[in-house]
Write a structure and sequence with these properties.
Shape: flat
Number of domains: 4
Largest sheet: 5 strands, parallel
CATH superfamily of the largest domain: Isoleucyl-tRNA Synthetase, Domain 1
Number of strands: 17
Number of helices: 21
CATH architecture of the largest domain: Orthogonal Bundle
Strand order of the largest sheet: 9-6-5-13-14
Helix content: 40-55%
Structural class: alpha/beta
Distance between the termini: 33 Å
Radius of gyration: 29 Å
CATH topology of the largest domain: Isoleucyl-tRNA Synthetase, Domain 1
Length: about 550
């Protein structure tokens, strides 16, 4: 609907150029077509006249008057008004919304999708947990957000590649190896000699026992077998990392999250990508040496101070491998990159972007796009839940899935804007009530499926062609409200892809479900009049399709029975 209005306005602008009202060389501005906050101002409004006023050397209201007069006739538009300093408000005909219902039915699973990103590749990195323990609830929020961003970008035509970055090098991995070795030697976290920064969760004992048993672990096509020797720290390290990577993968699979590529930090060193990045940065002229350290002049690119790249002892600071890693994304054809992280990474973002710009290799400014999520507080019975028997010090994602179910867990972790704090109420997530948003939306989908079953039981055969031809009978306010709400879906998909905010889809689905439930209670569907019955079934089925499409973007199921 929005696209058709944009086309009408563009044709009107062409007519003004042809008539001389606008100079012939006037470019079509990037005008906005949006839904007003209140229905009194119409179904859509545009600022096109205000954008054109300067070129026309006229006031916006006069240009608006001329533009309205130049608009081609359209069956979709019932009335056009000029408001304020030059806004143009469009009131659509009922037929416009009826045709949108028919479009949703005709396009099916493709309804709402577009080709804005067609032919372009975007890499979406998310979760990227250290392989040192079970995934916690924060990782779950990262997984839900990242997976949904990839789904939404794909719905906007992008070739979305999902990527998991494993930090399999560094101090955390050393602590994991030492902790596992201590367990293999019979120590517990309370024993004298336990590593100072050792991991204390019960899962470490499981890893150690599997290693001593000589178990084999397969991860992404590689098999690692426990060497059984508690003194072989390198063998323990390899086994522990593989074991926990597999466990994390199993947890993510239970969450409906998968990846196209797993990228190991260690490969950046093995393939000399870090050293190569350093050489490129030095060659670019944005580095200098001071105090025995190598510095990157990140202030050249907006950072508040310069940053050390290589310390005086020859080791690299943590942001340099990130620069090398994101450079590899560009080299691998990701013309756009999205990196989803916890808000605690905020301090490093500027220096990574500065490093990428300092390479002077064509990477666009602002690469990558960062999406940061805030922490999650989990509540049960009005009290915060913090600990897990499995992990010891934190609540795991698996615990949450086991308690609330996959669908509710995904919904609750995606339903709010990432940069907002989130409270996950387990009791609400488990409840079968209208207060539970995922239940409310899924129930709307199941209710339509139930309608079809009831129609069959009553001997009513749904005639799709008759339904589409009879939509003009749906002239009551609840039906009109539902059709208007349904028509918003393509705009929501586009907005979610543009802003990288899949929570917009969740918000929309709740509003669509609310409109559907209101219409359902106000309008008996299985009436004797075949035309009216088929029209109402058509509207119900279109709503079901949009609900299913939206739920799929969130990775949430669309049940037929509840």
């Amino acid at each position: 609907m929005k696209a058709s209005l944009r086309a009408l306005i563009a044709q009107g602008i062409d007519a003004l150029r042809s008539a001389g009202t606008l100079p012939a060389d006037t470019a079509t501005p990037d005008f906005v077509v949006e839904r007003p906050k209140t229905r009194e101002h119409g179904d859509f409004a545009t600022n096109a006249a205000m954008q054109l006023a300067k070129a026309a050397r006229s006031n916006p209201r006069a240009i608006a008057t001329a533009l309205v007069a130049a608009l081609p006739a359209s069956d979709d538009v019932a009335k056009v008004q000029i408001a304020g300093p030059g806004f143009i408000n469009f009131h659509l005909s009922p037929g416009a919304y009826q045709r949108e219902v028919a479009t949703a039915l005709a396009q099916g699973t493709a309804y709402g999708r577009n080709e804005r990103g067609a032919g372009r590749t975007v890499g979406v990195e998310y979760v990227s947990a250290n392989p040192t323990g079970p995934l916690h609830v924060g990782h779950g929020r990262a997984g839900a957000i990242g997976d949904c961003i990839a789904r939404v970008l794909a719905a906007n035509g992008w070739d979305a590649k999902r990527e998991f970055y494993y930090n399999d090098a560094g101090v955390q991995i050393d602590n994991l190896a030492k902790s596992t070795q201590a367990r293999a030697l019979g120590l517990t976290p309370d024993s004298e000699g336990w590593p100072e920064d050792g991991y204390r969760g019960d899962y470490i004992a499981d890893v150690a026992q599997a290693y001593l048993n000589g178990d084999s672990v397969e991860v992404e096509g590689h098999v690692v077998t426990g060497a059984k020797d508690p003194q072989d720290l390198d063998a323990i390290r390899r086994f522990a990392v593989a074991y926990l990577r597999r466990e994390q993968n199993l947890d993510l699979a239970a969450f409906g999250v998968s990846f196209d590529r797993y990228f190991l930090e260690s490969s950046l060193y093995a393939d000399h990508k870090v050293e190569e990045t350093v050489r490129k940065l030095v060659a670019s002229g944005h580095t200098y040496e001071e105090g025995g350290a190598l510095w990157l002049r990140t202030t050249d690119f907006g950072d508040d101070k310069d940053r050390v790249m290589r310390k005086s002892d020859g080791s690299y600071t943590y942001f340099l491998p990130d620069v090398a890693y994101h450079r590899s994304k560009w080299q691998r054809g990701y013309e756009r990159a999205v990196t989803e992280l916890g808000a605690d990474h905020h301090g490093s973002l500027m220096r990574v972007k500065a490093g990428l710009q300092a390479l002077d290799c064509g990477i666009p400014a602002g690469y990558p796009d960062y999406v940061l999520h805030q922490m999650v507080t989990v509540m049960r019975g009005g009290e915060e839940v913090k600990l897990s028997k499995r992990a010891g010090s934190y609540l795991t994602l698996r615990d949450l899935i086991d308690e609330a179910g996959r669908d509710a867990t995904r919904w609750f972790l995606i339903a709010r804007k990432p940069d907002s704090q989130l409270t996950f109420d387990i009791d609400l997530a488990r409840s079968q009530s209208n207060d539970n948003p995922v239940y409310y939306v899924q129930y709307a989908h199941a209710r339509v499926c139930s309608l079809l079953r009831q129609a069959g039981e009553k001997g009513f055969a749904y005639d799709a062609a008759n339904g589409a031809a009879s939509l003009q009978l749906l002239d009551d306010a609840p039906a009109q409200d539902l059709m208007r709400e349904l028509s918003r879906y393509p705009e929501v998909v586009e907005a979610a892809g543009t802003t990288l905010e899949p929570h917009l889809v969740a918000q929309y689905l709740r509003e669509l479900a609310n409109a559907f439930h209101g219409w359902y209670h106000a309008s008996p569907v299985l009436v004797d009049d075949a035309g009216l019955r088929d029209a109402r079934l058509a509207l119900a089925l279109a709503t079901r399709q949009v609900l299913a499409n939206g739920l799929d973007l969130l990775g949430v199921s669309a049940p037929e029975k509840m």
